[in-house]
Amino acid sequence: MDRRLLEILVCPLCKGELIYQKEQRELVCRADRLAYPIRDDIPVMLESEARRISLEEYDALKPRQAPLE
Questions:
Q1: Are 52 and 43 in contact (CB under 8 A)?
Q2: Taking the domains of the chain in order of start, what are their residue ranges?
Q3: By CB neighbour count within 10 A (0-12 exposed, 13-18 middle, 19+ buried), where does 25 fall?
Q4: In whole angstroms, what is the distance from residue 23 CA to residue 66 CA?
């Protein structure tokens, strides 16, 4: 993922910060508990494509979990 892109992307619903999860290839919004997929290095920022994260996943999240690359 492009570092500059990650710095400007926000959740399309609440405009909140997204957490990049490199291993899962997702951008996660803690506020909405949604994980947006990254396909072919392109974030898919559509609510209909996002998956709801579990409470366990939510509790494990930390802001800016993975370093920006």
A1: no
A2: 3-60
A3: middle
A4: 9
| Residues ≥6 apart with Cβ < 8 Å to 21 | 27, 28, 35, 65, 66
pLDDT confidence tier of residue 64, bands split at 50, 70 and 90: low
Distance from C-alpha of 41 to C-alpha of 18, rounded to nearest angstrom: 16
Write down how long the chain is: 69
Q: How far apart are CA 64 and CA 7, in angstroms?
A: 10
- In CATH, the number for domain 3-60 is 2.20.25.10
Nearest to 43 by CA among 64, 65, 14, 22: 22
Banded model confidence at residue 69, pLDDT cuts 50, 70, 90: very low
